[in-house]
Amino acid sequence: MAAEGDRIRRFNYTGEDDEVPDDATHVTVDESVRVIPAWAFSRNPSIVEVICDENVKGVEECAFAKCPSLRRVIMPGVEIVEQCAFTDCKALTDVECGKLEIIRGCAFHTCKSLGSINLPSAKIVEMGAFSDCTALADAKFGDKLESIKGVAFDNCPSLERITIPLKDDMITADDIFGFCGTLKHIDLVEGELHETIAALHFEEWRNDMNEEIDSINRILPTVDAGFSEEDDDVGGKVEAIRTWIRSVLGKIIHYKAEHQRVLDEEVATTLEHSLSQDIVMNNVLPFLALPSYTFEVEDYEEWEEEDYLDSEEEDREE
């Protein structure tokens, strides 16, 4: 199934019964495949690019482990990558997987050329998922992220920036960022938090919240990553991030309560003023001042009309 060219040899993979040629460079995974089986392409020396059909939902253990030439992986429908699936793919630079939810242990371990990742659908990042990715500088997650496990980014010395949602108990292990000495910038996922801050009643509150959010980027450069031979402050950056998350959450809860209190007071004051002055003076008092016959006439006219109709009906019967 390989199509030979001068430099490119294409191969369409249709399942575990296929024998993958050692000289295949560009692989497409057929729409009939739901899961790429364990070890399917492991140690293939020539594969440069893998493009999966949207029907492919999973990549099993070590499926592409130790593929030294693999540079680009496109997996638009994949939701789970099992342990060591791409471990030791030292040339890998581009990973596109917008629906990926679960990254198992060491899935991208020692992908030394991987410079950035963007995983908007990721929920779980397990132990060592990106450990020893020495070129990784930017890791971006979306608002679905629930948990990052121990040593997930261990020994990523180039890691400078990570984007995460504001969730408590999402980062628990002390060794997540061990040896990540250059980690100095945290971005929060855009969304509900920023909308809440923008809606706060007073500019002073908004400024205070934004300053609290930005504070982590002043703290991180001064905190040790942990796990270096000279460092007794194990997991210093993790502890700083955890403390910051709880501080921001606590402050936004406080200001939301204050915001509601101010709104309640304003509503109460508005009602008090409008009822006591506008409504009472302009509507209620003039209404009470009207003479009683204003209402009696209407009642009398209704009674008189009914009496007349009854009289007419009696005359017709006679």
Write up this protein.
The protein is α/β, with parallel strands linked by helices. It has one domain (3-260): Leucine-rich repeat, LRR (right-handed beta-alpha superhelix), CATH 3.80.10. The chain is 32% helix and 15% strand. The protein has five helices and 16 strands. It has helices at 192-199, 203-214, 216-219, 236-289, 293-317, and strands spanning 3-4, 9-13, 26-29, 35-36, 49-52, 58-59, 72-74, 80-81, 94-96, 102-103, 116-119, 124-125, 138-141, 147-148, 161-164, 185-188. The strands form three sheets. A six-stranded mixed beta sheet has the order 1-2-3-5-7-9, with no helix packed on it. Strands 4-6-8-10-12-14 form a six-stranded parallel beta sheet, with no helix packed on it. Strands 11-13-15-16 form a four-stranded parallel beta sheet. β1 (3-4) and β2 form a beta hairpin. It is elongated, with a radius of gyration of 34 Å. InterPro entries: LRR_5, LRR_dom_sf, Surface_bspA-like.
CATH class reads Alpha Beta
N-C termini distance:
108 Å
Strand content: 15-25%
* Helix-strand pattern: EEEEEEEEEEEEEEEEHHHHH
| Rg value | 34 Å
